[in-house]
Amino acid sequence: MKASKITAVDFFDDLTSSYARKRFFGGFSLLIVFCLVLVGVVKAHVTWPITNEIMVSVLIEIIAGSVIILGFYALYLYFIGASTAFREVNVTRPQDISERMIAMPKEVRHYMFWGRSGSFFRAYPLLELDRQARENKRNIVVDVLLPDPDDERLVRSYREILKALGEEPGDNPLLPNVLSTCMACAIKSSNNKHLDIKVHLSRFLPAFRVDLSDKGAILTQDDKKKSALFFDYGSEFYDMFRSTVTNERDVSREVTWDTALFAGLKLEEKSCDAKTLKAFGINVGDVDAIQQEVARLITVRPHRYG
């Protein structure tokens, strides 16, 4: 394979990122406004004609130069843009991850998620997939792979990860998140005949989150300050991660639920009761202790990309 297909970072693609556009246009716009204000101040308060003329001329040159730079940048974005057609891997800077994540579930027929908590999946991809399936009457298949909260090894490992991120986890931080994701999937799937969601519990704790759809595959980390990797749809890397997720799904425990139990329910606090919490074959323990936390996670849906 040619190196040009794999190389992920170059100067021009950096300029086409959403973060770069905002910084570029915002920075030069502020400079132009600042110079215009200075022109007005100089004309009003600098009484020496020569000094006044020199300062105004310099400021106007800066304004004109900034306008030209913005003009050429806008033309570059419109006519050229990123050279994504020539690459299969793209390093996505932290500020651009949310844009990638938002595009992943749009206009797709299959979505796969493999992660540790599913917080962002509950907050956006699941809701977007449900909306599209309803509005377009399009059948969408969703595969969700989560770590098994009944596995003590995974619980200990996840607690260490959260501590490293500066959080203070409880005894089993996997349990409320996995239950919340299962609950959200059951509610949406049971009330939308065009949405087919399958949830599996893995005995493996992934180092990355994998979101994979007809738009490509993206690998992200819990630390939102770190970059992500994006793989073009149909590339060998995309196929590799799709096979990895599929193989892990096939050897994992499938979560089943009674569709009738979740029919008519919504993502709200009253949907979370003893019956629904115990509907997934997961050891819930003290239902009263976990109920409030699960109810919060399915209604408020906090995540790292807010």
Automatic annotation (TrEMBL):
Chain ranges passing through the membrane: 24-42, 54-79
Keyword Transmembrane helix: yes
Keywords, comma-separated and alphabetical: Membrane, Transmembrane, Transmembrane helix
Descriptive protein name: DUF3137 domain-containing protein
